[in-house]
């Protein structure tokens, strides 16, 4: 998204886009299973930014989904021929430049097509820091994968950026929204409540489940935190980077403090991941789950304090 | 996380696939984007899942050879899927995919359906049909 807007002359860094769209989150959805594991997410669903950010910014934006894969590919070629950068929603299962072990069924992967060379498209992928290539046939499959949140060939790009944006106002508004969601979500699965909910569930694992399930459960949390996201620490570092930029823009001392604390929380999440991974690695059946749950709860407590601080940003 | 704390463990999964980006604080306290070759802990949890699927695929393979299941189950496990994931990806009901696991039903599947499976697994149609010789 950052790259797409830059192409239209609007310079916003990746953390800035992430922060402004209020994409940081915590969700533990025990009733939504992926690969027999409950869904744990550290961010809003990936489509969230594409959907809401242009609106919040007042950017005119083009979004289109297709029923006919051939038409979708033909139009993509047209965009490429016109030297237009476009964003696509794809499935990670068919993205051939991923390591095979990472090609899980995940339909909401967002990439940017920057050109075409022969039969291969040039892709800027947020996971990698250099340009990737993908064959047209594979890309077609990836754009029309089926299942949960199927991409339906979604293509999107900004049409026109507004003459000037009020960054200060946008930052305040987005922080307010994030604080509200993390502290006062009306359901027990989202925000700080979600973290505590998950930590309670971890304690219960001891009595109920086989060691293998416990291992997979903890492994699943770590994977969602470190592998899926950009920047590590379940996007906490990226949000800290946003808060730092926000501080540079608004010059509010508390934002500096919030940023520093958010960095510390990111480290705390990494510590938690480390302990979980140790359990997975040791393959021992007797593990101290209350201690793990306690670590998780502390992450939640530290984060709660940050949002309390951010709440005073009006 | 400080820049010098960013793990560079050179993990197996990312070998030959480049580096990922990470946000970390430099000496001046400023956030920067720096490349990482992976964290060992990431690898540990990923291997745990991958090994589990590999084991399932191995079991399915021997059952295919004994005529107890169809190659579809083998390829499902090989590409890290469970039944709901395969059914969703194929756009079929779970019970239908499960039915296709039966060798007798698999033998009678029409070319069109087999081709759909082959496309989904990204393999040649012949390989899907003659599993004993190819794996």
Describe the structure.
- The complex is a heterodimer of chains A (314) and B (135).
- Chain A is an alpha+beta fold and 314 residues long.
- Chain A has eleven helices and eight strands.
- Chain A has helices at 2-7, 14-20, 47-57, 69-81, 136-143, 167-184, 191-208, 211-227, 236-250, 253-282, 289-311; strands spanning 24-34, 37-43, 60-64, 86-90, 109-117, 120-124, 132-135, 155-160.
- Chain A has a six-stranded antiparallel sheet, with helices on both faces.
- In chain A, a hairpin with a 7-residue loop joins strand 6 (120-124) and strand 7 (132-135).
- Chain A starts with a helix and ends with a helix.
- In chain A, 44% of the residues are buried.
- The mean pLDDT of chain A is 88.
- Helices cover 56% and strands 9% of the residues of chain B.
- Chain B is built from eight helices and two strands.
- The longest helix of chain B has 26 residues, at 40-65.
- The N and C termini of chain B lie far apart (45 Å).
- The mean pLDDT of chain B is 88.
- The interface between A and B is large, with 58 and 40 residues.
Which descriptors would you attach to this protein?
heterodimer; A: 314 residues; alpha+beta; Cathepsin B, Chain A; six-stranded antiparallel β-sheet; two-stranded antiparallel ribbon; 11 helices; 8 strands; 53% helix; B: 135 residues; mainly alpha; 2 domains; two-stranded antiparallel sheet; elongated
């Amino acid at each position: 998204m950052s790259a797409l807007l830059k192409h239209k002359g609007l310079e916003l860094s990746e953390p800035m886009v992430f922060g402004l769209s209020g994409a940081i989150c915590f969700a533990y959805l025990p009733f939504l299973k992926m690969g027999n594991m409950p869904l744990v997410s550290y961010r809003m669903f990936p489509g969230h930014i594409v959907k809401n950010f242009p609106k919040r910014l007042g950017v005119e934006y083009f979004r289109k989904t297709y029923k006919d894969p051939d038409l979708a590919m033909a139009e993509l070629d047209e965009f490429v021929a016109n030297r237009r950068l476009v964003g696509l929603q794809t499935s990670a299962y068919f993205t051939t430049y991923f390591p095979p072990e990472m090609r899980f069924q995940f339909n909401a992967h967002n990439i940017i097509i920057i050109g075409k060379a022969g039969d291969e498209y040039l892709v800027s992928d947020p996971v990698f820091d250099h340009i990737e290539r993908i064959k047209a046939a594979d890309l077609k499959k990836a754009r029309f994968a089926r299942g949960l949140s199927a991409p339906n060939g979604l293509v999107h790009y900004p049409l026109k950026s507004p003459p000037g944006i009020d960054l200060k106002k946008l930052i305040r508004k987005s922080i307010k929204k994030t604080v509200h969601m993390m502290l006062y979500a009306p359901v027990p699965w989202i925000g700080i409540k979600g973290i505590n909910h998950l930590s309670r569930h971890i304690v219960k694992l001891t009595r109920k489940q086989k060691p293998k399930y416990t291992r997979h459960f903890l492994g699943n949390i770590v994977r969602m935190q470190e592998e899926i996201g950009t920047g590590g620490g379940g996007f906490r570092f990226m949000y800290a980077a946003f808060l730092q930029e926000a501080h540079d823009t608004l010059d509010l001392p508390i934002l500096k403090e919030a940023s520093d604390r958010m960095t510390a929380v990111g480290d705390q999440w990494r510590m938690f991941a480390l302990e979980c991974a140790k359990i997975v690695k040791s393959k021992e059946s007797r593990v101290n789950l209350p201690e793990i749950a306690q670590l998780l709860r502390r992450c939640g407590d530290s984060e709660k304090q940050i949002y309390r601080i951010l709440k005073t940003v009006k | 996380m400080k820049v010098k704390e960013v793990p560079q463990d050179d993990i197996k999964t990312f070998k030959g696939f480049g580096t990922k980006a990470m946000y970390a604080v430099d000496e001046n306290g400023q956030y920067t984007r720096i490349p990482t070759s992976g964290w060992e802990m990431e690898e540990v949890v990923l291997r745990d899942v991958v090994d589990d699927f590999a084991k399932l695929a191995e079991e399915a393979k021997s059952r295919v050879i004994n005529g107890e299941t169809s190659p579809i189950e083998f390829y499902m496990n090989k590409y890290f899927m469970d039944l709901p994931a395969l059914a969703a990806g194929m756009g079929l009901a779970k019970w239908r995919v499960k039915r296709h696991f039966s060798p007798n039903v698999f033998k009678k599947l029409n070319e069109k359906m087999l081709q759909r499976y082959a496309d989904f697994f990204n393999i040649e149609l012949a390989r899907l049909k003659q599993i004993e010789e190819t794996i």
